[in-house]
Amino acid sequence: MSTCTLSRRGAEAPASPIRALAGLARAAADRGLTVHGLNIGQPDIPTPKIMIEAYRAFHDEVLAYAPSDGFVDYRQALADWYPTRGGVRRAIDPDDIVVTTGGSEALLFAIAAVADPGDEVLVCEPYYTNYGGFSHMLGVEVAPVTLSASNGFQIDPDTIETAITGKTRALILPTPGNPTGTVLSASDLERIAQICVERDIFFICDEVYRDFVYDQEPGARAASLLDVEAADEHAIVIDSVSKRYSACGARIGWLITRNSELREAALRFGQTRLSPATVDQYAAQAALQVPESWFREVNAQYKSRRDTLVEGLRHIGLNVPTPEGAFYIAIPLPVEDSDAFCRWLLTDFEVDGETVCLAPLGGFYSTEGLGHNEVRMAYCLEEDVLQRCVRILERGLKAWPTR
Ligand SMILES: Cc1ncc(COP(=O)(O)O)c(C=O)c1O
Q1: What is the distance in A from the centroid of ligand 1 to the CA of 398?
Q2: Quick one: 8-46+293-399 is in which CATH superfamily?
Q3: Could you tell me the pTM of the whole model?
Q4: Which atom of ligand 1 lies at the shortest distance from residue 177's CA?
Q5: How does pLDDT run across 94-118, given as a tens digit for each residue?
């Protein structure tokens, strides 16, 4: 027998709670059930044709590496896009951008560049679980500030300030949030950035859902850390084509920082993994031509889905907050163990051949014992399907044996 053992890091790597139920969902589908996947943020909106065409138009004879920080033409096009159509007020230098393999790699590079093993990054829980996954890979601890469903998972800048300790190297915050849908106002974003500057920690602002805000005027986007000049030395913005263009498979993201040392560190990480994908960058560059009207239509569609889902959930007696952006809703359920409930929905329950796959929220918290009555739903499905999902959930809650 082999005496080779895994590293502790490898052996203890957390499994994604978002994908944890995938096997049960597959088994339910194999039994002939229709399983509505509300567990994963895979947009169903068709990817813009201009992007798909760009893939088809690739005819180079050699599929070569790209530069480690991305094609300069693409970085220039991104820098041009933000202040013109991306709703950012301040100019961006293409050299402040490092193109990565999805926003995921941008997060990995950002955390690796600012925190050493044993250091802490501050997050607001429930948080996007991969903040924990990447931190774990790097030996970095996650320190949580706990939000509450009772006030719509609002983020209080003062609470963040109080949670900063001598070990904190960075704050990681998404706006709009996953899994909460919380959108930071420009003034709260500025205040939080100011706190990070005063306490001399980095602010990794995850803006991959910035285009999806529902309670502002049409065409609005969530406030961006790129507009907070006073934080330039402390700010790292994470962005991606995945959600913006319904193009999760393109695996193109980037980080933006005006801190040249940070940018240099990210570039060196980029050199280690050689290059982001070549053809996907061409397609992502083509996507920058997608007109504003497309975003407005997509936003209107998600808003309508959000409203349908929130109304439906309230109608069945659930006390749910209204998410202000992204396409997730985190909700408390009248069950003690949402993980067991979500499994049961897949193994032992159906309504006329249909069931739902939800994401239990326990894994989105690092404080033991929290989130065990909560689930996340992604509203990336048509409205009539969402309505059916609410009915299935209602019946499931009534039939749940250990309720
Ligand atoms: C909050 C948040 N940040 C970053 C990502 C990473 O996305 P990608 O690597 O596809 O760009 C996701 C994906 O779901 C996300 O929800």
Answers
A1: 34
A2: Aspartate Aminotransferase, domain 1 (3.90.1150.10)
A3: 0.96
A4: 1
A5: 999 999 999 999 999 999 999 999 9
